[in-house]
Amino acid sequence: MGLDEVARKPHERLMAWLAADMEAVNVMIRDRMASEHAPRIPQVTAHLVEAGGKRLRPLLTLAAARLCGYDGPFHIHLAATVEFIHTATLLHDDVVDESRQRRGRPTANLLWDNKSSVLVGDYLFARSFQLMTETGSMRVMEILSNASATIAEGEVLQLTAAQDLATTEAIYLQVVRGKTAALFSAATEVGGVIAGADAAQVRALYTYGDALGIAFQIADDLLDYGGSSATIGKNVGDDFRERKLTLPVIKAVAHATPEERAFWERTIAKGHQAEGDLEQALAIMARHGAMEAARADALAWADTARHALEALPDHPIRGMLSELAAYVVSRIS
């Protein structure tokens, strides 16, 4: 292994290892996002799909299938399916959150409008179901359709929990499992299923994806209060401004003094924010060690993901997946 290979990030090494498969996925995505009658569909989809994201979820599907000895061709369909589901949720999320930036670029709803974003998202969901049926596997369809329902349920739960100071860590975890981890775990699980892996291996792949997704989301929540705009693809403090009760805030609220609770009531529950409130929020979180406690949770979930891989075949991909679990939390360690 050369120095360049060692220097690469884990997802970049995975991408290089699975380059031929990923190119086939990209071809399928471009082919299936086409529309003969509605040119707005490929315009909106291309804006997101070609925005330079890591393609982590389809990569996980390809990696899981190859790790379990699969030789194709349906891992390509499933990877494209996972990316379409993800892209659809991003389009809908940006409308719900009234976001103006995604991956450092203007959002589709800003460039076009909310109607286009919602309807193109619906189109991509429909396309994803068309793709998954082509595998002929009822188990695959069950996993991905369940994940789609869980994602939608998580988004609705987040609507009611987002500004409610009574939101617990258990509810937060349920939201995260919906909006992030469900698609990670489905992506890895269907890779094992299409490869014909045994039940223990499929379960291990599910556990890996679930724990990786939770660690990934907690790390993202932490970066919102301590990252850079270039790193997180949005503005630092957006979660606070959008009144999202993420894990560091939930931990701080749980230990709040009456004065601090009044601050959270004003800024998060009621949305009355003023100059200097973000800095005060950071100070309160620091006072209670909320960031450190959330960081410890993210590291624990990353460890859970890595341990799950022990049930899977000894393979270079397994090593890369283990490094990926460590990497997603290295940004906040």
Overview of the structural elements:
The structure is a single chain. The protein has 333 residues and is mostly helical. It has one domain: Farnesyl Diphosphate Synthase, CATH 1.10.600.10. Helices cover 74% and strands 1% of the residues. The chain is built from 18 helices and 2 strands. Strands 1-2 form a two-stranded antiparallel sheet. The longest helix is centred in the middle third of the chain and has 28 residues, at 199-226. It is globular and about 60 Å long. The two termini are 27 Å apart. The model is unreliable at 1-6 and 228-232 (pLDDT under 50).
In short:
With 333 residues, the protein is mainly α. The chain has helices at residues 3-7, 10-17, 19-32, 40-49, 56-67, 74-96, 108-111, 114-133, 138-161, 169-194, 199-226, 229-232, 238-241, 247-254, 258-269, 277-287, 290-308, 316-330, and strands spanning 101-102, 105-106.
Element order: H for helix, E for strand:
HHHHHHEEHHHHHHHHHHHH
| Structural class category | mainly alpha
Tell me the name of the CATH class.
Mainly Alpha
**Helix segment count?**
18
Examine the secondary-structure arrangement and name the CATH architecture. Answer: Orthogonal Bundle
Question: How many angstroms does the end-to-end distance come to?
Answer: 27 Å
CATH topology: Farnesyl Diphosphate Synthase
The CATH homologous superfamily is named Farnesyl Diphosphate Synthase
Strand content: under 5%
Largest sheet features: 2 strands, antiparallel
* Rounded Rg: 20 Å
Provide the helix percentage: over 70%
Number of strands: 2
Anisotropy-based shape: globular
Number of domains: 1
Task: Record the strand order, biggest sheet.
Answer: 1-2
Average per-residue pLDDT, rounded, comes to 88
